[in-house]
Amino acid sequence: MSVARAGEFGLIARVTARLASGHATLLGPGDDAAVVHAPDGRVVASTDVLVEGRHFRRDWASAVDIGHRAAAANLADIAAMGAVPTALLVALCMPPELEAQWTEELADGLAAEAARVGASVVGGDMSASPTLTIAVTALGDLGGRAPVVRSGARAGDVVALAGRLGYAAAGYTVLSRGFRTPKVLVEAYRRPEVPYGAGPQAARHGATAMIDVSDGLLADLGHVAAASRVGIDLLGAAFEVPDQMRDAAHALGVDPLGWVLGGGDDHAIVAAFPEDLPLPAGFRLIGHVVHGAGVTVDGRTYKGAAGWDHFR
Amino acid sequence: MSVARAGEFGLIARVTARLASGHATLLGPGDDAAVVHAPDGRVVASTDVLVEGRHFRRDWASAVDIGHRAAAANLADIAAMGAVPTALLVALCMPPELEAQWTEELADGLAAEAARVGASVVGGDMSASPTLTIAVTALGDLGGRAPVVRSGARAGDVVALAGRLGYAAAGYTVLSRGFRTPKVLVEAYRRPEVPYGAGPQAARHGATAMIDVSDGLLADLGHVAAASRVGIDLLGAAFEVPDQMRDAAHALGVDPLGWVLGGGDDHAIVAAFPEDLPLPAGFRLIGHVVHGAGVTVDGRTYKGAAGWDHFR
């Protein structure tokens, strides 16, 4: 059955029937607005939009996968502030001929990814559109902590990473060349493995600045460096390319370091910490904050891909 | 300059430079997420999406107008819970050839409408897309009150309305027939005049159920009736058609009552109140909650347009 045939209210009923309620949900879907617990008197909020053909392709990933990815992109932003996600709202624009089942499976993916952090889908909107578009807003709770912003890094801090780099970008390249393996790369593109807990953990350990890697490590650390008015020098040795990624890069004729340093969508969490503190579990040292500007690798400018501009 | 030429980060900088910070904003645009005051430990959240050609046309309204409308649709949802809006997040999908200035003016409209209630735009996302799409999420604060949901109306309650009905629908019909006047109708379509304060006021006066009229009065009260398991009987005499609307309807050969009872987009606030309480200022009696089901006018089913389904 198409979404047009299901109708707006029929489709909303089908989708909301599949959504569990998270522990922060005081009032879920079905009214003019949702009500979500915000225990410390503040709420963290972030919006990300995915457009078909630009951020996802229906022939490259299932609806469930795309739901996972759409949720992950937003939940990672909440984690990168040092907060714990509480809720998602989803605005979904669909061609009228889209199968209603696709929408239900998308909701399953969104709900399952949210459930990984104890959050849930609390509301949304649906409309017909020529372009399949998924706009997600995530809310989160700081648990009494100060938000960890991009502008707090100081010369002398260490830079540390939680999570993977380059896997999703490698999977994207593999798919774009018409291949379906290596599975570890393709699956990483379809469903990023985000270290959500690392965000609040870094905040508790005194992180001075933090960001999630969505545009590519060099680009995102460039945002931190600019906002903090510092330079960041990365340790080239910290970016060993895994064998499977190296083999895939060789077969495709590309530089795998471009995936690792320039690829987005893994949603790793990168943070600066005062140098005298031990790093929290799950983080590894990848560089240092220095006086100056910009991001370098072993003191030099990296010449490969520097990240994504979503209009080019 | 096109948005493609401005680039994602250039465009974000241009737009955020135009946004003032509301009193609830603890951290505004520019980081992974915003942080918004949620003083009573809960946050109200709602999402609405506008798609070009379906919810707006660039030749019918300016970018500033469309910003006002997109904000109003969301802020009204917050007000209809009895809450005061605090913040907006905006996901904007644009054709690459769109003028960057259009985006800036849209932001001006969003910000100006939000400022009417003391709120501001705290974050968002931008992407290229073949279809111009504006997804807005609004947040709000209940000020310690219980949310006023759709399901609380009880037989014996009175039904009362704040704000206008039919003006936006009439303006839409006028524009769709190629006319630009009467101005009062066209302007109502372009920039709805939402009685935001009526929502929290109704909550303080003991409203038992509340909704904003976005799909049409009969359709939206139908949601209240269904959720509350009651019927609602409206007083036909309460819906006097203003002269300008009657004249326009006559000239266009349509029934103006269809606009009043079936038209959306004015975002009037309609609420049920216990019958023994005086109505709050700004509300007028339009009907009664009765035992039964569905919505009637003077005891009969109205045969005209019953509201919008966004897939048809």
Automatic annotation (TrEMBL), chains A, B:
The entry's protein name is Thiamine-monophosphate kinase
Name the species this protein comes from.
Plantactinospora soyae
**What GO biological process terms are annotated to this protein in UniProt?**
thiamine biosynthetic process; thiamine diphosphate biosynthetic process
What Gene3D superfamilies does this protein's entry cite? PurM-like C-terminal domain, PurM-like, N-terminal domain
Chain residues that bind Mg(2+) 4: D32, S46, D77
> Any idea of its EC number?
2.7.4.16
Q: Which residues bind ATP?
A: G124, D125, R150, S214
Checking Pfam families in the record gives: AIRS
The note filed under miscellaneous reads: Reaction mechanism of ThiL seems to utilize a direct, inline transfer of the gamma-phosphate of ATP to TMP rather than a phosphorylated enzyme intermediate.
Q: Which SUPFAM superfamilies is this protein grouped with? A: PurM C-terminal domain-like (SSF56042), PurM N-terminal domain-like (SSF55326)
> Which residues does the annotation say bind Mg(2+) 1?
T47, D48, D125
A GO molecular function assigned to this protein is:
magnesium ion binding
Positions with a binding annotation for Mg(2+) 2: D48, D77
Q: Which reaction does it catalyse?
A: thiamine phosphate + ATP = thiamine diphosphate + ADP
PANTHER family given in the database record: THIAMINE-MONOPHOSPHATE KINASE (PTHR30270)
* Residues the entry annotates as binding substrate: H55, D265, W308
Recite the UniProt keywords alphabetically.
Answer: ATP-binding, Kinase, Magnesium, Metal-binding, Nucleotide-binding, Thiamine biosynthesis, Transferase
